[in-house]
Amino acid sequence: MKKYLKEINGETWLVEDERDNMKLYYRIKEVISSKESTFQKVDIIDSYDFGRCLVLDGVMQTTELDGYIYNEMISHIPVVTHKKPEKVLVIGGGDCGVVNELIKYKELKAIDMVEIDRLVVEESIKYIPSIAGDASKDERVNFVFDDGVNFVKNKYKYYDIAIVDSSDPVGPGEVLFSEDFYVSLRDCLKDDGMMVCQSQSPIFYKDVLKKTRGILKNHFPVVKTYKATVPSYPGGMWSFTLASLKYDPKDGDIQKLAKDTKYINNEIFKSCFSLPNFTKKDLELL
Question: What is the pTM of this model?
């Protein structure tokens, strides 16, 4: 049995080493699939509280219970903010949840999803269709199994929106938090383009949020951090940071927002940019 799967009183638990002082325990019904790619260990588990889940190297990535919250917040916000988006780039997002949200917008003509690990995509489509949805069936979606960092270096002023759906800043995902990558990402956007990334927990990883926001402010005129509550993520509260070359989300056309959502609505769109005082202080916004 893998070290992050433990038998306790005859039951199987996923034990996630979140940080030096905290471990997260998830009681699971079964391990549906367990494989190892060139990059990482890929597990699909069925848990008691969170349903089916994608686990990479022992770290929870998305769950049936609340994965839609993250996927909706990182995808709908930029699409609604941009005046006329047509081409979207997704870096990472192997569970296909983000792309499954994007295909709800008919005005999008092309969606390129660049994921370094083909196995993650294959396993998610096969075993977690409630998250992957119809992403693999939409003709506008182009799957590219490549290094996202190298991919964006070969694109120039091509995309309207870029979404960085990365894992934590360790292992394969670490480079997706670097300044060089964000500069390349800016250069692959059209003159009115924008990008959004997950910027970690504003409670436990405020240093990552502050660094990410600081880098983006050096290269984009409009930078806005917003939040959502994702129960399966450490601390519950999670942050996203949008960086735009022209459009501000406060001017977004909320009427464009897809209607078949579970979490985001007009009120959430407006309120998610209202940050608590401790985060404002950390980001020097007070």
Answer: 0.94
85 and 155 inside one domain: yes
Please, is 67 exposed, middle or buried when counting C-beta atoms within 10 Å of its C-beta (0-12, 13-18, 19+)?
Answer: buried
Record the tokens describing residue 126, joined without a space.
């096969």
| DSSP-assigned states of every residue in 103-135 | TT-TT--EEEEE-S-HHHHHHHHHH-HHHHTTG
What is residue 17's predicted lDDT score, i.e. its pLDDT?
A: 87
For residue 177, what is the DSSP state? G
End-to-end CA, the chain: 49
> Could you tell me if 121 and 74 lie in one domain?
yes
- Using alpha carbons, list the distances in angstroms from residue 95 to 62, 100, 112, 120: 8, 9, 14, 7
Instruction: Enumerate helices (H) and strands (E) in the chain, giving the number of each.
Output: 9, 13
Of 121, 88, 93, 118, which is closest to residue 104 (Cα–Cα)? Answer: 88
For residue 88, the model assigns a pLDDT of: 98
Q: Same domain, yes or no, for 43 and 151?
A: no
- Active-site positions? 165
Angle at 173 between CA 239 and CA 72, to 5 degrees: 40
- Could you state, in chain order, the average pLDDT of each consecutive group of 10 residues for the chain (286 residues)? 89 89 93 95 97 95 97 98 97 96 98 96 98 96 94 92 79 66 94 96 93 95 97 92 97 94 97 96 90
Domain shared by 45 and 167, yes or no: no
Structurally, the chain folds into a number of domains equal to 2
Q: Please tell me whether residues 120 and 11 are part of one structural domain.
A: no
Q: Are residues 140 and 265 in the same domain?
A: yes
CA–CA dist 226, 73 (Å, integer): 9
Assign residue 209 the CATH number of its domain. Answer: 3.40.50.150
Residues 57 and 80 placed together within one structural domain of the fold? no
**Which DSSP state fits 80?**
H
**Same-domain pairing of 71 and 201:** yes
For 20, the domain range is 5-62
